[in-house]
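Table S2 (continued). Query chain:
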Amino acid sequence: MEHAPEPGGELRVTPLDAVHRSLGAKMGPFAGWLMPIEYEGALAEHRAVRERVGLFDLTHLGKVEVTGPGAVGMLQRVVTNDLSKAAVGEALYNLVLNEGGGVIEDLIVYRLESERYFVVPNAANAQRVLQILEETPSEGRLHLVYHQDWCFLAVQGPSSVKVTRALFSEATDLAFMQCREVQYHRRPVILTRSGYTGEIGFELFTYQDVAVDLWNDLLEEAEGSGGGPCGLAARDVLRLEMGYPLYGQDLFESVTALEAGLSWAVSFDKGDFRGRDALLRQREQGLPSRLRGLVMKDRRRIPRAHYPVMRGDDIIGEVTSGTFSPLRQTGIGLAYVWPGEVAKVGQHVEVDVRGRRGKAEVVKPPFVDRSPR
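Corresponding output:
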């Protein structure tokens, strides 16, 4: 999540680009970056993460440090969750909204010290989030650092504790959504118990000059546990099985945090923040749409983005993300239905899959029995 290229500009590459190619990675563009899409194959990599462990390069994500007496006050006005609930060494999932309550971004905020926070936005929105942070008034001294020279690796899966602990003994003591600053080759590493796969996992942020060594050391440990490198294709299936929304597909500015089903990440009682008044109005008036989970009853019909959701002759919604779930052995998807209560959990709808309808049950994600805790 560094500076995205200008339209027509060259794709950015991670410091591990040559390593990925040596491992036979299929590379592809993603949010202004050239990223590994798959190595052995998305299905095999999905299985490795669900059963053993996988290693991801996520350097395209943003890395913004906010420090100073004014840090928490400024951040509280920008994000939806209540950062006063996060002790030092803890993290909170957050949203950044526009004044209409629409989702500009979803991100995690880590509290590293009493006046030091670490913000990790998505690749496509890193510059916009940074601009919002810069433009939001603060009541105390504030310092923003955009770490363009950092890499971001993720170790995910049941064996991730064993793999990460081999390099960082501190991994043993971290609970879900906790973080700690550790050392690797005399360089600082932000080590967090977090991830976007639904499995136990860790995410690591450090300077790119040790990225290759850190990747190689983690990969050696992962391979010793029957795992290996994983690309963004497997990550997309993993996150969708958990019902985790992806910005740009399931989250965008035209839908609010409430419509996206993310009210649990909104603290109305913490004071003012961007979009609060709009969300309060919508909460009173009712939701025009609602993000729902769909499980296909006909495994031959796989939902994909933009497929219509039907009830009888009426279009009542649209799929935003869809795939075949290797664990469920059927198609799953996220879809906005309108009005918000037209399709409730337990009811059935149909998805128009290229002109053929497939029956689907409306469910509450996750689609699989997994937990990152």
